């Protein structure tokens, strides 16, 4: 998953460690290139912005001066948190080759954006969310890593109507590795999710004051969802892992209230709960109708390896899902 460091571009404004990235964008730059080193402070991206580091682990964005932004408050976060990179009501932004570490909100927060392109971005130890993309379209998240956030490492919330792709990424140490929250036309491919409470969570649920939801026409393919055993949602204290959600642990892939989803070629193995979980298997298909969501329907589960999980490998509504050519262990369960 390592991406080679980009060479310096002739059309770029080059910033040395400690320099102000925001000042360069405010002065009209559209491509800002960062040399290896540390850069303090958050950044707000204008339309057409390219923020290019020397590579994740070599170039690092850390907390410092907070850049002014009118982006709405971050979901499930306290007031006055800071974010590493913000994009709001803009289009065609890209971030590449950068570690974003230690922010009290999200590493990267995009809201109402058309065109977000992320490559070789590492979100590490950001308090609430890692990469959080909301009410946005044309999303491409590739070769990224996200770890150590209270909720999701990579989250798509209320993103409808345009193709979204999360590919060749790795998540660990979050409540949810990848969270597809009321987002449609999303493909999760070749993702390695390990050491979370849930590797991939797909959820249709309505919330007061939020946009209409739904998770439809999605795919989860060729992923490794293994060893997810953290406990999330156990304690309702706001600073605990997954505090706003129900108790979860030991889940490889959960699809709740989803429709027209294809699950193919995945390895879902070695997921064991580290605490109480409302879901009792590594692969779960269930309804969210009681929470204002929907019953699951038209789900295809084909050619997956699902074994060595506890307390069960699968818990699937047989009326909602078609299972074909899977390798499923002896702890198979259906509902």
From TrEMBL:
Coiled-coil regions, chain positions: none
Domain Right handed beta helix stretches: 84-216
Pfam families tied to this protein: Beta_helix
Lineage: superkingdom: Bacteria
InterPro entries: Beta_helix, PbH1, Pectin_lyas_fold, Pectin_lyase_fold/virulence
Protein name in UniProt: Right-handed parallel beta-helix repeat-containing protein
Naturally occurring in which organism (per UniProt): Pseudonocardia nematodicida
């Amino acid at each position: 998953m390592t991406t080679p460091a980009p060479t310096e571009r002739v059309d770029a404004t080059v910033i040395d460690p400690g320099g102000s990235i925001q000042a360069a964008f405010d002065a009209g730059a559209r491509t800002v290139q960062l040399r290896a080193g540390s850069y303090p402070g958050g950044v707000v991206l204008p339309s057409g912005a390219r923020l290019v580091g020397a590579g994740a682990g070599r170039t690092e964005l850390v907390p410092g001066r907070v850049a002014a932004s009118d982006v709405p408050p971050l979901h499930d976060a306290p007031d006055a948190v800071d974010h590493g990179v913000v994009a709001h009501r803009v289009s065609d932004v890209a971030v590449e080759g950068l570690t974003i570490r230690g922010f009290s909100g999200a590493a990267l927060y995009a809201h109402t954006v058309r065109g977000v392109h992320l490559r070789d971005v590492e979100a590490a130890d950001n308090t609430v969310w890692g990469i959080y993309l909301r009410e946005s379209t044309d999303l491409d998240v590739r070769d990224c890593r996200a770890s150590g956030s209270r909720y999701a490492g990579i989250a798509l919330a209320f993103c409808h109507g345009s193709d979204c792709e999360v590919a060749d990424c790795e998540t660990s140490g979050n409540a949810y590795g990848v969270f597809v929250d009321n987002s449609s036309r999303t493909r999760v491919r070749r993702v390695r999710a390990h050491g979370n409470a849930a590797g991939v969570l797909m959820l249709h649920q309505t919330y007061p004051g939020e946009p209409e939801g739904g998770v439809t026409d999605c795919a989860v393919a060729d992923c490794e969802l293994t060893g997810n055993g953290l406990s999330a949602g156990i304690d309702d204290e706001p600073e605990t892992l997954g505090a706003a959600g129900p108790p979860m642990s030991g889940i490889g892939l959960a699809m709740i209230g989803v429709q027209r989803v294809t699950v193919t070629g995945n390895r879902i193995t070695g997921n064991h709960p580290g605490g109480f979980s409302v879901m009792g298997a590594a692969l779960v298909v269930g309804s969210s109708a009681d929470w204002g969501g929907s019953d699951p329907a038209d789900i295809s589960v084909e050619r997956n390896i699902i074994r060595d999980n506890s307390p069960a490998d699968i818990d699937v509504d047989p009326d909602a899902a078609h299972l074909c050519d899977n390798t499923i262990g002896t702890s198979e369960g259906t509902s």
